[in-house]
Each structure stands twice: as structure tokens, then as C-alpha cells.
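[scheduler] slot 2 assigned
[scheduler] job type: sequence-to-structure, two independent chains
[scheduler] chain ordering preserved from manifest
[runner] begin chain α
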Amino acid sequence: MKHRTRHLLSFCALSALIAAAPLNAGAVTMEELLERIERLEQQNRELKQEVQDLQRSGADLIKLPETSAEAARNDETGFVSSNADYGFRILDAGEDVNTKPIVQLKARQQGDLKGSVTLSGQITAIANVQTSNRDDKFGYLMRNPTSANQIGGDVSEALIHSANLAVTAQLNDWITGYFEMLYSPEQNFGAGTITALTRNALDGRRAYILLGNLEEAPVFAAVGKLDTPFGLNDSVSPFTNSTNWHAFAGLAYGAQLGYVENGLMIRAMAIQGGAQFRAHNMPVNDTNVPSRLNNFAIDANYTYGFGERDSAMFGASYTAGSAYCQNYPVFHFNPCTDPNPAWDIYSRIRWGGLELLGEYASTTKEWPGSAVPDPTNPLSVYAAQKTSAYTVGARYGFGELLESGRQKSYVSAEFSNFVAGDDGAPWERQNQLVLGYSRYVAENINLFGEYIHVDGFAPLNFVSGGNFPDGSTWSDRDAETEVLLFGAQGAF
């Protein structure tokens, strides 16, 4: 606008000079008038050149103001954005279980997060039928196995298993903020049935500040509520988590440090003491009060690539305080007298469309609560045992290869085992077999079906008894559960 005004003034001045010339011929000669016109033309040429230079440089001085809608269309990044593939990966509960911060750092490195804030969401709907040879005892662990929700020998359901909403904020080139909400009435620890308000509450599942920039350095740090670096805990099944996940996957307050480069990943985390949200319990003055950072976990793995999509990964983990330290009777979040460390080894091999997975975890000491200390009780004949779990699984992908790296369809088989007590004890073990099929109708939508068979019923609460007057236990090594399940998972 400034330059247009100058053009207009020049034109007006020229018109005034020409109009006034005959009347003031004595005062202004024709030669002087021509010199003035020549100077004005030179100024016009310079102004035109300046305008062209400004246009080429994209200066905002010559742009008209945009409406908010035009600004949103023309802004390639924007303040708020979404990425369906990132949303699916960051909120998927079966893969990259405890490496979500690395998923985020790699997404930033690859430019997948366009906005300052990335909104992500996930929802999983399921329908299933279940049968058990023991009334009210269903060992399928994708819902809390309580008689408050599963009555008789046959049950069925059609519902929302879980839904998540997450915010990933790129605060600057090095700092990422993350917050995730979870709605999961089937696995919520609230009292009552799945229709009770106490079980339909939202849970702040994860929240942390992440420091790292893989473009600049292979190290990162995170502080907050996040998954602990212990074990793999992934599954090849489309929906059902492995028994290793249920037994040893940790979620806790703490501070994590990590290194990731050239296939090597090393992570360590200082974990808040007391009974944490999942799989960690370290006594603080013989209480469960989380007033010290007196627990830790460390993990290291190496991935060797031998083809465009082929790789072999091997890893090991250790934690100073697992969840299996409580005395009889066992109840969630009760304090421990002494910590019980645990270790884990795992491997994953990918060769073309085939993926193989194996994992074994165990405590280093016997779990005190896995035995009944009352000599007058017949159940006391069973000695305390180390707690362990293992998983073996295979998955084969076929069909179209999607941009995310997933294939269109998968078939899978996985067996996992949890050992909680002595041989022959009612709480000795719980085994799980899952046969699955997945079909990705889009990068972010998975339709799936599973057949699940479970041997044993060994819930963590009162696993060896103590909740009935006669000291008996509700665990049952001979209970069997059959499940046929269908579902859909979508994310943005």
C-alpha cells in the first residue's frame, strides 16, 4: 500500500506540472519541466524494480491480509495436526510396549509430526463369547477376572474395551511433552461391574517430558509417569497381550535415560519406591509410601539388520524390585518386607513376512506370598516359588505392503505361561494360547479375530488364599477358559 501511494503521488505531481505549465511559463521553462519529468520517470523505474524484488523475496509488506481459513489452508504445518500412523503406533498396547519415547523421537526425526501439537486417539471395540469349566472363573486376562463381572459358566459381551486420547507437544527442537488419557472399564480396578461409574472413570495413563533430538545426538531422557525399561512384553497377537505383559510389564513414576544408535539401545530408569502402578514394588521403611527413588530397571538390546526388512534382535533386562515381594495374603499394592529383583531375556527375528518372538522373565528369589504360612492349613504343603513367565509366538504377514511397513493381513499363534506357585498347587500356573487373524483395511484401522484357550485361574489378588474364612483359595490350576473374539481397532 505504501508503494501504491507513492505511485499515485508521482502521477498527481506530473499532472499538476503539466496543467500549470502554460500559466507559469515565465517561472518554469520548458527545459526545467522536461528535467522534472525525467526525474519522475527514473523514480518510477526504481519503484517498479523495488516492488519486483519484494515480490520475489515473498515479503509480507505487499500481501493483503489473509482470512483465518486462508491462513489455515496455506500453513503447511499449523499449530495442531494429526498423523494416523503415528497415532496407531503410539497408542497400540501390543507393540512397542515400553519404547514409546523412542517411537516419538523417531517420528520427530522423520518429520511425521507436522504441528506444534499432535492429537492422537484410539478406540477398540470387541464382541466375544467365553466358556469356563468352573463357574465364575474365567482366566482370560484382557479383563479383570472377578465374579462381579463374569457369572456362571458362559458369558458374552459386545462393548468398548478401551479408548485413548493423547497429546504430543513439540515444545522446541529438543523437548517433547506427552499426555495420554485411557478409558478401559474392563481392566479398570474400580469396584463393581463394568457399568459402575467407578470403573468408567478416565485414567491419566502416561504423562512425561521427553528431552532428545536424534538428529543431533543418540541420547534421550524422560521424567514422569511412563513404561519402565524391563523386558520386551510385545505380542504377535492382534489384540490379546501376552502373559509376560500381564506379569512383568511396568508402569511407574521415575526418570529414564537412554541411548539409541546403529541398532544398539540402552535404557535405565530410576523408579519411585513403594507399590507402583504396574509390576514394581520396592519397600520404603517397610511401607508402600513412594517417598524415595530407591528402585531401578535397566535394559539393553541390539538389532542386527541383514536385509531391507530382515533383522534379528536380542536383549536383556534387570529390575531391583518386582511386584512379587508381598507376604501371604497377597493383595494389590500391599507393602513388602524385602524386595524381589527380576531379570528378563528376549529376542525377535523378522525375515520377510515372518516374525518370531520369544521371552523369558523370572524373579531372583521366591515369592513369599506364593506359600501359605499356616501349618494347620492343608495348603501350606506347597513351598514358595520364584515367579516366572515366558512367551513364544509367530506371525506371518501377507498381501499388500502398506506405507507404514505393515502388511495387509496377518495370521499369528502365541503361547505364554505364568508360574505363580509350587507344582500341584491350585495357583501353580496359568497358560494362554492365542490364534489370531488381522486385516488392515487402512493404515490406521485393524479388523481382527482371535481364538483363546486358557489353562488355569490364578488371579494376583489372594492368589494363594487368605480371602475366605477357611483359608482356601479361589485359584484353580484345572480351570479352563475358551474365548472366541472379534474386534476392530481404529486410530488417528
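[runner] end chain α
[runner] begin chain β
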Amino acid sequence: MNRNEDLSENLNYTTPELPILTSDEHLSELPTFRELMHWHDDYKFILVTKGGGL
């Protein structure tokens, strides 16, 4: 992920002609099971496919 000093994130769109970014990310692969704090002006849609109990 490409973050700036203000914690904003620069997104690299999958299709430059159409500002859409698709990715397949798994929080279970991160050490703390969490994404680092960040922000961007784009909308983000997340599909949860499996619950993880605490």
C-alpha cells in the first residue's frame, strides 16, 4: 500500500480508463488481522466471506 505522511493512500487503478480497483485481500494474512489506518477519497466496498471468532 502506498501511503503519504498524512496517512492518505495512493490507489493504482486496475483499469486506468475507468477508475476501478479490484483486489483480493485477506485480513487473516496480516500479523494483527487488521488493516493499517489510512484514508482516500474513493469508495471502498468490502465483501466478508467468512467470520472469524474472537
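[runner] end chain β
[qc] chain β: The chain has one domain: 1-49.
[scheduler] slot 2 released
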